[in-house]
Every structure is written in C-alpha cells, then in structure tokens.
Amino acid sequence: MTFDDYRGIWVYLEVKDGNIAPVSLELLGAGRQLADKRKTELAGVLIGSGVKPLAQTAFTYGADVVYVYDDPIFAYYRTEPYMRALLDCCEKHKPEVLLYGATPTGKDLASAIATDLPTGLTADTTILDIEEDTGLLLASRPAFGGNIMATILCKKYRPQMATVRPKVMKALPPDPSRTGKLVEEHIELREEEMRTKVLEIVRETTKKARIDEADIIVAGGKGMGSKEGFQLIHQLAEVLGGAVGASRDVVEAGWIDHHHQVGQTGVTVTPKIYFAIGISGAIQHVVGMQNSELIIAINKDPNAPIFQSCHYGIVGDAFEIVPLLIERFKEEIPKLKAAADVKEEIRHA
Amino acid sequence: MLHIVACIKQVPDTKIIKMNPKTNTMDRASAPAILNPYDAHAVEEAVRLKKKYGGTVSVLTMGPPPAVKAIKKCIELGADEGYMISDRAFAGADTLATSYALTKALEKIAKQRPIDLVICGKMTIDGDTGQVGPGIARRLNIPPLTGVKKVVEINKEKGYAIVHRKLEDGYEVVQSTLPCLFTVEKDINDISFAPLPNMIKAARYQPTIWTADDLEDVDRKQLGLKGSPTIVSKVWAPPKPEGGELLEGSTKEKVEQLLSLVLAKKELFQ
To answer: For the Electron transfer flavoprotein alpha/beta-subunit N-terminal domain, which residue ranges apply (chain B) (predicted)?
Structure first.
C-alpha cells in the first residue's frame, strides 16, 4: 500500500435536524478548493436514517460523490455505529484527506476514527491548504489559547484528518443544476451488539436567542464590575433583540452561564453586529468573534487591545454610555418597525 | 464499590502566558503550571460519585516530574490514589501517542484493581483538542461518552451508566454499558473547597511513578514523538488586527453616532 492509493478530499456530512449541518456545507466549499488544486474528487460521507435524499444538497454545494449509509441503526448519533460505517468507507475507498466540523459530534467521531485507523488528527483548524504535488495537507490552527498559529502536518499516515471550526470556511453558492455520483454503502450492524442507547433527546428551547445563531450579540466583560453591573448587558441585548455574550473572566466569576462564553474555549460567533463592552480584548476572546460583520467596542481604557479588533470604538464609561444607548434604542427601534409595517400595508393594499 | 480513574494533566495557564515574539515559543517561566481546569471537574465528579456509590478514585497523569503537583491538587479535591507516568520516551507525544501511553498505564492500574469508569475533562487548555479521552476509550475498547453534563445513575451490579450528554441545543439521555469513559463538561459540577484533612494528606502524598519500562506490552514505536503522526511544521504570530475608528465628541454625540451605525442595519430591527 502506498500513498498513491489514497485519493480524494472527503467531508463527513453531519446531519442536524434533518438537514446537512451548515458547517459541513462550509467544508464542502473549502474541500472544493483543495480538490481542484489537487485535481481530484470531492466526496461527502452521509450517515443516518432516511438521509439519502440529502445527497443532492451535497452535490448542490460542490460534492462530486456522496457515499451514503442509510439504516435505522443510524437514527441518532452514537460513536460506535457511526465509527464502524466511516471506518468501512475509509477502508474501501481510501481518501487522502478527511475533514469534519469541529462540533461535538464531529470531534467525537474524528477522535475515534483517528485512533482506530490510526492516523493523525488536527483539531479546530481555521486555515486549510494542500500541496499540489504531494497532497500534503497544511492544517493551521490557533494554539496556546490563540497566542500563536501553528501549521500541523501528517506526513507518514493517510488519510490526513482535521476538524474545522464552524463559521470559518465559506460555503459555495448553491447550484441546483450540479449533480454527482451517489454510492450506496451498507455495513452489517446489529442493535443488540451496540453498547450505548439514546433513551431520550431533550431540546432546550430557551427564550433567549441562541448565541451562535444570533444576528446581534451584546457581550460584556470584567469591566462591568459585578453580576449586578452585568445586568446592563442583558438590558441592551433585550432592547436590540439580541443574545448575550461574555468573556471567559465573566463566566469564571459566575456572572453568567458557560453557554454565553465567546472565544477560544467558548463559542465562535459571526453575528451582523457584535458589541464588546468592558471587554479588554484578549486574543482568546477575539478569535471567537473577529469575523463578525460590525464590531463595536466600548471600554474606558483607551489602550485596551479590543480597540485594535473593532470597527468602531468608544472610549468611555459603560455605565454612562450603555444606559443612554438603551434609552435611545427604545425610542428609535419602534419607529423603524412602524415604518416597515406601513410599507407592508401599502404593498398589500 | 466503584473504581473510577480520572485522567488529568498539568498545563501552563494559557490565560496569562507570554509569547516570545521573536521565536514564537512560549515563555514557560511566565505561565504558572496549574491543574487543567476541565480536569478539576473530572476529579470532582469522580469524588462525588465515590461519595454516592462508594469506592476508590484514582488519578493518572503523564508528564515531567513537577506534574506531581497536579496530582497533589487532585488529592486535595478528594482523590485517593495518584499515578504518574514520566519518561523521556513519552516526550513530544501528540494526542494519538498520549492516548496510547495513558492506556498502557490504565491497563496496569486495572490489573491491581479493575476499573469501572474513566473520567476525563472536556479538553486541555494548552492542547485544546479533546481528542485524548475518546482515544483512550477506543484503545480500551469501552464506549466513549463525550460532553457529559450530568451523571444520572451508575449501576455496577447491572453494569450500566446513564448520563446526560450535551447537544448543541439541549441534551440527550444515554445509557451505556460499564466500564465506559466520560469526558465531562465544565457545568457538570462546581468545584468544592478542599477540606483541611485532604490538604494535609495532599501535602504529604507521593504518587506511584512509572517509567516506560514499568508498563507492560509497550510498543516503543508508539510512544512520544516517534509514535505521533502529527508534527508542527511552523508557528507564527496571528496577524495583528488593523484597529478600528474611535468615535469622537461628547458622550451624547458618541452615542448618537453609534446609534446611526447600528440602525443603518435596519433590516435587523424590522
């Protein structure tokens, strides 16, 4: 067996709520570029129950081939059956590169596969490239809490694997006329041999907007002084209809739940507007929000690094500025809404 | 009686670490070594389960001799036994080689006292991968349960565990056979204050230390740098952001400028 037997760029297509997860579509976009550069195929691997129709979505977003394992045993994600299917696929078709979204499921599956194959696995990649001649994958990621970037190689094993952070790569614009080759695969697995069972799935529909999907995020840091002071962040978020974010300090101080933490050890977000209020702007925080469309920083320290990472900044006291902002937004936002309603009425008249 | 082993690591505190801008290496002297914060939750959970069901909590680490300090911290948290594997042969290990070495140590521990449950933290703050826990589970051929945020029940007699695994929008209730491996989320528990007797025990405690030769059936090619498929080819400083425009004027003027910037995206508010 030589490296020449391993061909093609693969993406593990994670299924979420009956659709291919956004991160997998992003990876098809990134994978397309790698495959074109290496002059090879881009394939997706789809595992689930009743997932065959989703293959067309993968073609639409750039895949040439989709391998499908469609069986009731894959009704919900479990490491063991999914791992067996993906290992089977790797052994049969031998990819040169295999990418996963750095989601809880993607990381779980990739770690298991890497151990069994065995091969190297780079975690939380944010930059991908490939050497045209050798097929060597250059997977770069923030290291040591975002203090440096490191490029990781896997020279002696194939496939080369990486998990890739969501919302970093760009999906291609969908092209519904694109088609590809659907390959149906099968593996013999028996439910009674599975060692884990999902007894129940509980969706927590919180009233507040989810931070990784929010268009507007108001994030606060240690500069808010206390849990009470941090309430101003909640109030501004509420007026704007946005979600609340926080720096790691604030989460560690117990002012807010870990789910709200933005940054290296929290969530990566890309809202349309990101407010960083009383956040100094440590690199660990910035890596989690730097791709936001509009970043606004408010901090009383003119030398705070956050002013290097924002689009617009105000040097000043949050306790003076934020209440004024809340008051003014309360006046202005209803006017915008009213104007939109009027337009809607005219359209229907 | 349960035997729970928590795998832990001593890490530099990346929050306050300083980098040498010329070499892009970290200035180790600038960063105090701490018990990986996620691992503290793993140990805490192990101790809580011991209190509930009875048994023994062991902790295992791989690292240079000063990592004994991290084991002592775990003894403070309530662990009973500490094991450390320490050898130059382990140096330079990536996640694959690390899970191999730790698995060999777990197999040796299990010979003395069979293991019912392995608990790891979600990830380390210096490696940031979360790959070692599931790797150990695969090597021991036991089910990996990642993202555990609550342990509902451990039933050794009937040989199962029930846990809540975190999902992106909620959680799932999963039953697994025992033995199995958990990687735990931060929100699984709050770290208790160490009681005085634990502190005293920790101060005097000396863990069992094994070298590569002390482990059994070890394939040396799978250890350390040699056993690591991934290599770091280069490191560089992340590009410096260019910086934003500071709004000028009185507080009221600044607020008004900000207001118009935000409200310009009027589709968000309609």
So the answer is: 23-218
